[in-house]
Amino acid sequence: MRSDAVVSSAQQGKRLQPPEKEKSAILLDERGLLDLPFLALTILLVIIGVVMVFSASYARAYWKTGNSTYYFARQAIFAVLGIGLMLFISRINYQLWRATSPIFLAATVFFLILVPIIGVTVNGAKRWVEVAGIRFQPSELAKIAIIISFATLISSYREKMATFRYGVMPFAVILVVLCGLVALEKHLSCVLIMLLLGAIMMFLGGVKIRWFAVGGAIVLLFALIYLKTQGYASSRIVAWRDPAADPSDNGYQVLQSLYAIGSGGLMGLGLGKSRQKYLYLPEEHNDYIFPILCEELGFVGAVVVILLFILLIVRGYYIAMHARDRFGALLAAGISTHLALQTFLNIGVVTNFLPATGISLPFFSYGGTALLLQLFEMGIVLAISRQNDNKLL
Amino acid sequence: MAKKIIRLNRARQERLTTKEKNQRANRTILRRTLVLMVVCGILAFIPLIVTLYNLMIRQHDYYEERAIRNQTRSTYLTAARGIIYDRNMNILASSNTVETVFIDPNEIAEQMKEPKNANLLDQIARGLSDILEVDEGFVYKQAADKEYRYKIIRRKISEELADRVRDFVSDNDIHGVYLETDMQRYYPYSSMAAQVLGFVSTDNVGSEGIEAYFDSTLTGTAGKVVTTKGNYGSEMLYTYEKYYDASDGNSIVLTIDDTVQQQLEKNLQNAINKYDIKNGAFGIVMDVNTGEIVAMATLGAYDPNNYLEIFDEDVFMTLEEEYDAAMDIPKGTEAYDAAIAKYNSDVAAARLRQWRNRCVSDGYEPGSTFKLVTLASALDCGAVTLDDSFYCGGQEDFADRDQTVSCWKTAGHGAQTTAEALGNSCNIAFGHIGTRIGRTRFYDYVNAFGFIGKTGVELPGEAGGLFFGRDITTASLISASFGQTFRITPMQQVRAISAIVNGGYLLQPHIVKEIIDQNGNTVQKSERTVLRQVISNETSMTMRDLMEFVVTEGTASAAKTPGYRVGGKTGTSEKIDVYDENGVQVEDKIVSFVGVAPINDPQYVVLVALDTPEYVPGTTFTPHGQYISGGLMAAPTVRDIFLDILPYLGVEPDYTSEDIRGVNMVVPDVVGRTEQEAAELLTAKTITYRVIGSGDVVTDQLPTAGKQVPGNSEIVLYMGEEKLNVMVEVPNFIDYSVADVNWLAANAGLYIQAKGTDVTTNYVLAAYQDIPAGTQVERGTTVTVEFASKGASD
To answer: Rounded CA gap, A327 and A383, in Å?
Structure first.
């Protein structure tokens, strides 16, 4: 860690100094210019996301609250706050997250333990806690906690990562604790993302490939036991393979989603003109917002949005590869991976490419704190990008 | 030195190794990040884009169609079903708007997913069962099919009930219970012309009769509004709507006249009662010059308002007994199941029977009535002239025929002219007439008279004739020439008889006069259509005379209609192909008469057939001692029909005729008039009078105004004197002679309308009186008495 810091401080002098006259510049601060493509892509996706929330949600908003802009207004406020937060975070030296990672991890565990105790139930699931009027899912924190803590550990263990004691044990312990706590919430999709995220972080860190084989086998075993014991999960599998078999029950959501996507065609029905959003497709502004996008903007619109995601993800990895230190690289790669996993799993589920599970689409799905956390992550990547010209290569 | 170097090297190597390891770890991160960039950033999204391509481009049509079906609600705009009118625009069938209650099980199930709505279905079931008097269990059963959006709870309810359902729905803010407008067919005349009209089933499909034949015309086109609807009925901002305009059904104006139809049915029913007819009766009244059917009836009928109910009381009681008997068998046994199954199939058969229009859908054995066709053909082709003579010895063996032909009169008719052969309805004579025409020529005439094909009348399920081919054998020709061993439809027969009397023109029969739209504009009108001239006008004129001869001098004397000149032909035929349960051919008979009036200027043909008068086995008498024949059963029925319908149809009776005695006259109101004024009014009606009292004006009259008395009757005018209002007992007239009946009636102060043959021989006795003996009636009442010759036959 120390050698890292030495390198960074030694190279500080060479970096571009901020112009004197523009002291409060957001894009260009004393550490450098943030990555403009990444920023632009993020803001573009947030804007499209908010517009889609408006389009997708107003029928349900009107039906439920009588105010068709109910969801849109909240999401828009959070989007503005979130972009502000992202820019603020981008100006904080990301080394702060290395220093505070044990606190972050401990806080996450604390909140996760709070869930069963003072948790708030939404839609029949007890996954939220409310602190100082802010309601959020500690499991969302857990994913970030994994990225930060794993990046911290890997960058300090460095070459020891090849060993079991350093390369596997600490990570396994963290994963088991966090995943165990999230599993208590019966939040299968989140556990899945955490495991994948953890595994990919370890893979990045240099853990020997054979350990993945072992870990994969264990996960597979658990998955099989889970499928055997949990009826609702296996009935999801049935609905996945043939959604039309039970159109009114398990297959309903998938079918409605496919109707929305399929009726989009090449060019879509036009922005705002979705029909499936009229209370046919459940969760149309949350997990199932992408089908509404497909229906309204067509195959072209859907592919454009996917391309924006791809560009953002690739740019994220690019920033990781050009990070000035290993921690930054791991952090940026971890956050990009998180973004990629969420996007892939969400679109995979709504297109019935994957069995149904509740995963939200970053920047699009309605949810204020979730959006704040996503933009918080983007802010970290932007912070890393400021010192980017110091390449690892 | 060497050691040192080695140590140095190792130290450097170790130092290098640490650095290298560090760099290698960095390179690993870099390499693996690159791998992730490719895998997570690019490769992972390829299958997703492929999936989207499949869904959105390749399967677009499929999903779009499914989605639209998912999102749209079709609101049907009911087109009013057209009205069926009689020829005088009396409504025979019309539609009322009613409502049908249905639920949306899918919507109810969706709402019940919310805990606050958990009791929604219970509430709906209780509410609907209260209002609509349906079983709660039925509501649950209908609601169980959760993928459906339309399940009917009760059809065709009144406005009042519908309002109560609406109140229930709005008071409790219930979603998922709906009403839709529906149609209820109403037949104001109940069973009148039931088989002609048909009925409309619960799902609004015309069944049987005109309702079926003109179903699409009457139905019109239901309009439809296809609207995109949000789930739970939420409104959409961007909707698309497609309108399909409803166009009301057209109305049908029949050629049927309600009065004539009622008289036909009344008289057929009377005949059924009088002559112990077992299997119902049917009859047609047709305009011989236009081919328009003025009345068409099949008894036992049914009530199209309740078409599933068995209308005939006897059949209904028999079925009830069968049901009760089945219920006495212990449930669950095979015998019970078999009995119930038999009951159900018997009910179904009884329904089909009562719905059947026997005038067009079934053949019957025309018997001797067909001799008119044979003779018309023979005269037309010159095979026979009026001067020919035919000898009947009671039975005769014909060449090329093994079976001996027997005449109904076993003693034989002796030598007869052509006219006498028809008047006697002599089978042997007609066998000769048939062979003179020749086999193919006979067939060609039968075909030309329209007995082979269908008539094309606007009714469903029409049958053709069941006749021989053009290669008919001589043996068959002989039987056919006197009307046996084949079947034709009553419709074919009246059309052929019309052709025989109207100058030889075979007409297209019509039961539909015109089709009009909802504004009364004619859409389609039936025109008089001559298909061909079958016989010459001269032959037709000859046939009229011969037919009148049958009534005046032959077997059909009972058809003599007071005030009118009638021609016709009787028929009594053994039913072919009817067997009892042992497979033995039974002696069931169908008696018929086809009459035309006025025969000097033919206007209407009436066919009446009575199916199977009950008979004492081995005899040709009914249990009441009536001789079974068309002349004694069908002919008087036709006469009664003529009496009831001809004045109504504007066919004026011949007031100078002696027969006027048999025509009922309506007594005019002469109270308050002078004797002279009264005399004028009464004379116009051929009524005479005697005066009681010595006042200047008529103070009272007996019978009172509006009552009917036979022509040439004498009524009593009271001039100042008090009327004696005495009730008298109707004496028994049956089996008394004409003179005796008149004497008995005069003694009792009653009027007699004599019907039937007026041949005053010893054989002619009263056979029927319309007011039973022993009934107390007012003095001056008219009793109709029918006289029948115990000797006449066929």
So the answer is: 12
Is A2 a residue whose pLDDT tops 50?
Answer: no
Task: Please give the full DSSP string across B507-572, using - where no structure is assigned.
Answer: E--BSEEEEE-TTS-EEEEPPP-EEEE-S-HHHHHHHHHHHHHHHHTSTTGGG--TTS--EEEEEE
* Mean pLDDT rounded to a whole number for chain A: 84
Cis bond upstream, residue B731 (ω within 30)? no
Assign A118 a pLDDT band (cuts: 50, 70, 90).
confident
- Per the listing, tokens 């972009």 go with A83
Beta strand B782-789 pairing with B751-756: parallel
Interface of A with B in 183-202 (CB under 8 A): 200
Would you say residue B288 lies in a domain?
A: no
- B291 within a domain of the structure (yes/no): no
Most trustworthy range by pLDDT among B157-166, B293-302, B750-759: B293-302
> Can you tell me whether residue B477 is helix, strand or coil?
helix
- Classify residue B541: in a domain, yes or no: yes
Q: Averaged over B625-635, what is the pLDDT?
A: 85
Domain containing residue B230: CATH number:
3.90.1310.10
* Whether pLDDT at B272 is above 80: yes
Helix or strand run (H / E) with residue B321: helix B313-328
Selected for mutation to probe chain A from B14, B26, B29, B111 (highest A CB count within 10 Å) is B29
With contact defined as beta carbons under 8 Å apart, do B232 and B262 qualify?
Answer: no
Between B371-381 and B537-552, two packed helices, what is the crossing angle to 10 degrees? Answer: 140
Residue B56 to residue A276, Cβ atoms within 8 A: no
| SS3 per-residue string spanning B252-309 | EEECCCHHHHHHHHHHHHHHHHHCCECCCEEEEEEECCCCEEEEEEEECCCCHHHCCC
CB nearest A275 (choices: B26, B67, B147): B67
DSSP code of residue B463: -
Residue B28 sits in which domain range? 2-69
Residue type, B80: A
CB B505 within 8 A of CB B537: no
Is B592 in the same domain as B734? no
CB of A392 within 8 Å of any CB in chain B? Answer: yes
pLDDT for res A12: 45
> The whole model's pTM is what?
0.60
What is the distance between the terminal CA atoms of chain B, rounded to a whole angstrom? 156
E-only strand ranges, chain A: 28-29, 32-33, 120-122, 125-131, 134-136
- Are residues B135 and B46 located together in one domain of the fold? no
Between the alpha carbon of residue B500 and those of residues B375, B427, B496, the distances in Å are 10, 20, 6
Are residues B425 and B330 part of one domain? no
Q: Give every CB contact of residue A335 below 8 A, 6+ residues apart in sequence.
A: A147, A316, A377, A378, A380, A381
Residue of chain B minimizing CA distance to A346: B48
Among the partner residues B26, B52, B67, nearest to A302 by beta-carbon distance: B52
Convert the pLDDT of each residue in B50-96 to its tens digit.
999 999 999 998 888 888 877 776 666 777 888 999 998 999 998 88
Cβ atoms of residues B768 and B625 within 8 Å: no
CB B542 within 8 A of CB B386: yes
CA angle B64, B66, B67 (to 5 degrees): 60
User: Which residue from B minimizes the CA distance to A347?
Assistant: B48
- Determine the pLDDT at residue A31: 78
Percentage above 90 pLDDT, chain B: 25
The DSSP code for B399 is T
Chain A CB contacts of B106 below 8 Å: 248
> What does the pLDDT look like over A41-65, one tens digit per residue?
999 999 999 999 999 888 888 877 8
Rounded-to-integer distance, Cα B122 and Cα B116, Å: 13
Quickly state the pLDDT bin for A1 (edges 50, 70, 90): very low
- Which residues on chain A are in Cβ contact (under 8 Å) with B59? 262
